[in-house]
Every structure is written in structure tokens, then in C-alpha cells.
Write a structure and sequence with these properties.
By secondary structure, the protein is an alpha+beta fold. It is built from eight helices and 20 strands.
Length: about 375
């Protein structure tokens, strides 16, 4: 299915929920809608589904205007953050319901086989004979997801479908969904607030902020080359380190009168060679770019430990420096005393540079994030 949103906007009274935007999700692929709560993701999904009508603009499906066509006349599947199941039907009957409603009759044995296959993939096959009320919230969410996948609709809309699941199961199902979406049978639009989830799902990403579309493209490209500070903030977890700077004598001057080498692009071109002396800019450093051990050409950053937080297999260290506060994401488990001195190292070429208007002027070549 080819879906296109043409100058879509949406207001409720005087409040804008979506500013005019164009978006054409890649057909047969996964597009992630990434943004904080209130960014406009659910509103956009509801307009795609036909649950809401935009204030302005058109929704086109295979070049046909379906803007005012109700949801019952559209061949879509949608899963909400808050699960919805048929309470009087068993899990198996819930999953089978879209298959039984097809115009072309499917033999019962084939329906049963499809139901069991999907249920097994989503780890709910032991519960096929139960009613939804007998399941946990996470299990009920998986039933709703299974029913949507069973429909095999050309457009699948998912509004944070894994948010109610525990961390381990969420990771397992994310991998399974990635395999299911890779078939190319459906155009999939998946909303999330989690930048890490967008990276793991891959495909394409549309970054939303306060109802505006900030950037759309292949997920890895958007991550490595955020078009603006707003995109960099939205697509960084932990938050990107952003340091106010000025261009002085072909170097960056940071707070504390720290001089930072300008990142050098391939071919030796300086990242800010276009700028005038004294130009205000912002240096962005991802937390994963900061290391404990030095390499040739690194810049050493000295500071003191303000907080050390162990999460999974990484340690997140908050460091106070003369340049400003920094967060370093260090692989492994590390123990630091609060207030202890620490030296971090970073390749200056890993920095991102944004101009005074917040637009990207330099980003390193794609590499490990």
C-alpha cells in the first residue's frame, strides 16, 4: 500500500495538534514515528486510520483521496497502547476473528494453524483457550497485537504496542516483530517515545516534535545526521551532551575558556569553515562517544563524578566539567565515588556541530552509536 499525507494539519478548537506536514511512509516497509508524549504521534495515526478527519490536507492511499472515508471502509489493522479485545471470546477466537470475517472463506484447519503460529511467535500459545479477563495486561496486549497481525492488512498502525510489557519480553517481541515486518507484505507505522526502540526496529524514522514533522528518512541516517538540535534531542537516549560554543581562530571556544579542535570531515575540510569568527554554535557529543581510555587524537576532558548509574550492562556517569555537565555511557559495570576526579576521552571528529539557528553543520560519518 502506498500511503501519503498531503499538507495534513489538525486543530481542536484553537489548539494545534499537528502543524501542516507531508509524509509518505515507504511502501512495504516500517516507519517509526518517534517523539515525546504530546508530539502528535497518536493524532497522526488516528488520521491515517480514518478515526479522525484532519482540519486541512488530504490522506491518499494508492493515489486515491480517502480523507473522509470512515475507518470501517479502510483495510487497516491498528493496535493501541491500551489494548482492546473481545471479552467474551477466547484468546484463539480473538486472534481468529479477522480471518473469519474475510470475504473469501478460509478452512477452519488453516485458521487454527495461522492462529497457533502467530500465538507462538508472540508467546501466548499457552493461553489460547482462556478469556482475556484471565490474562495479565501484558498478555492481553499481545492478544490485541496478534489479532492485528492475523488480519494481514496492507496498512498496520501500532501505537506504542510494547509499552506495557516487561523489559525482557519487550526485547524478545521487538526482534520478532522486526522479522514479521521484514516480509514487505504491509506498510507498517509504529509510534514510540523510545529512541533505542527506533534504532533497534530500523526501517525509516519520522521525528515529530510539538505537532511538527522535524525529519524523515532511513533510521540510521536520521540518527547519525540529525537535521537540527530538535531532532538530536529527540533521537538521543541518554540525552546528547550539548555545549554552547563560539568559533574563535578556527577552533571552538567552550565555557571555561576550553579550546576544542574543529571536527574535520573527509578530505580535510573543517566543519565550520563557512562560519565567521565569533559565531555562536553548539557542539553535540553523544554519551557513547565518551570513553575512559584514550586513543590517538583524542581530547581529554577532566571533571568530577556527580552521579554514576548502572543500567543493564552499561554505566551512565554524570560528570561536572568546566565546559558544562556531561553524561558518559560506559560499557560494563563501573564503580565511581561521588566527587571523585575523572578523565574522559573523545575523538573530536565524533562531535556534531549546530549553527546559531540550531541547524546541523557537521556530523561524523555513520559508525557505532
Amino acid at each position: 500500500m502506498k500511503l501519503a499525507l498531503d499538507r495534513i494539519s489538525h486543530r481542536v478548537g484553537a489548539v494545534p495538534y499537528l502543524h501542516p506536514l507531508d509524509l509518505a511512509p515507504h511502501p512495504g516497509a516500517l516507519t517509526v514515528l518517534l517523539g515525546a508524549t504530546g508530539a502528535g504521534k497518536t493524532t497522526l495515526l488516528r488520521i491515517m486510520a480514518g478515526l479522525d478527519v484532519p482540519t486541512q490536507g488530504r490522506v491518499l492511499v494508492d493515489d486515491v483521496d480517502v480523507t473522509r472515508r470512515p475507518v470501517r471502509e479502510r483495510d487497516i489493522a491498528m493496535v493501541y497502547q491500551q489494548f482492546i479485545n473481545y471479552p467474551s471470546l477466547t484468546v484463539a477466537e480473538n486472534i481468529a476473528s479477522p480471518l473469519r470475517r474475510r470475504r473469501v472463506r478460509i478452512p477452519n484447519a488453516e485458521i487454527d494453524a495461522q492462529v497457533r503460529t502467530i500465538a507462538t511467535r508472540l508467546r501466548i500459545d499457552p493461553f489460547l483457550g482462556r478469556l482475556p479477563a484471565a490474562l495479565s495486561g501484558g498478555q492481553q496486549q499481545r492478544v490485541a497485537l496478534a489479532r492485528a497481525l492475523a488480519k494481514q492488512a496492507p496498512l498496520v498502525l501500532l501505537d506504542e504496542p510494547l509499552v506495557n510489557l516487561d523489559y525482557k519480553l519487550r526485547e524478545e517481541l521487538r526482534e520478532e516483530l522486526t522479522r514479521l515486518f521484514a516480509t514487505g507484505m504491509s506498510t507498517v507505522v509504529y509510534a514510540t517515545t523510545d529512541p533505542s526502540e527506533a534504532l533497534l526496529l530500523g526501517g525509516y524514522t519520522a521525528v515529530l516534535g510539538e505537532g511538527a514533522l522535524l525529519q524523515y528518512g532511513p533510521t540510521a541516517e536520521v540518527f547519525h545526521q540529525p537535521a537540527s538540535l530538535r531532532v538530536a534531542r529527540a533521537f538521543s537516549d541518554p540525552p546528547m551532551n550539548l555545549l554552547a560554543a563560539q568559533l574563535v581562530e578556527r577552533k571552538l571556544r567552550l565555557a571555561g575558556d576550553v579550546r576544542w579542535p574543529l571536527p574535520t570531515a573527509a578530505g580535510g575540510e573543517r566543519a565550520a569553515s563557512h562560519a565567521h569568527g565569533g559565531s555562536a554554535c553548539t557542539l553535540g557529543l553523544r554519551a557513547s562517544a565518551l570513553r575512559l581510555h584514550s586513543r590517538d587524537g583524542d581530547v581529554a576532558v577532566h571533571g568530577t563524578v556527580a552521579l554514576a548509574d548502572i543500567a543493564g550492562s552499561d554505566t551512565f556517569v554524570h560528570v561536572t566539567t568546566t565546559m558544562g555537565p556531561l553524561i558518559a555511557q560506559l560499557p560494563g559495570v563501573h564503580v565511581f565515588a561521588l566527587g571523585a576526579p575523572i578523565t574522559l576521552h573523545v575523538d573530536p571528529a565524533r562531535g556534531l556541530l549546530f549553527d546559531a539557528q540550531g541547524l546541523l553543520r557537521y556530523a561524523p560519518a555513520a559508525g557505532p552509536h
